[in-house]
């Protein structure tokens, strides 16, 4: 049966089909494991991989992971267009009722969808994430993952946005890392797709806009998604302009009239946070490329940038001092084999 027409009927008789979309760039070493974890899930009726202008044989590695079930489709872009564009293309190329996001170097924990789809009253549903450091990946065993009680809860917009403001020198744990299953009809009904201007924070932006139009975003404590922590990850090498585009996306949402109250306050705080990081990076770029005088001129032309630039420069200097003095421990600690996005009550035996 063709993948486009497959449907998985679960025990309660409801019609469920999941399309897993994977945007991949130069992921030949990891894409096979990601695809295999998706094809191993019985609820998955489609896996759409978009090779986003790779130069390392990503498409060949993806084809090698095909299980012959007819569920895998590989689309290749000749030039890199970014993860948002790749994901939008995958959504358009698929037909399943549910869309599930999987990064090309991550994986699903076996049985993920049975637990994640147990409850039905949601528009987006996400589960816990286990972060696995790259150096521990070879000896990773899914049985070592702690089992938590599901304890379903719903995220509101202020909570979600506030938990996407990073804290300096702390392990990252923003809720934007969540990789939910999303109902296609909700996306279509509200005209929602990824913002293709973004190469940073595209997940955060989509989820925030979904919450702004009333999405019911369910989260469970059970861990179904494995995220590999790599020192050379693409998300850790964003351009200065990527920060500006993300801040501008927040600004556009603030100006849309869709927000009020605590939600508006949270998005404004996030925009201020990202805009400050942009100004700091722009100051450093200008100083490096054109000299201190040009960097100072940038401050004079952008008075609102002075405070975040001063704060950023001060904390950079402080971090450097502490590192040289041997006092900085947060970012120099030995990697932990397993870390969770959030914890909860251990599941009863």
Automatic annotation (TrEMBL):
Keyword field: Transferase
The Glycosyltransferase 2-like domain, residue ranges: 19-138
SUPFAM superfamilies for this protein: Nucleotide-diphospho-sugar transferases
CDD domains: Glyco_tranf_GTA_type
GO MF terms, alphabetically ordered: transferase activity
PANTHER family hit by this protein: GLYCOSYLTRANSFERASE (PTHR43685), GLYCOSYLTRANSFERASE 2-LIKE DOMAIN-CONTAINING PROTEIN (PTHR43685:SF2)
UniProt-recorded name of the protein: Glycosyl transferase family A
Organism: Phyllobacterium phragmitis
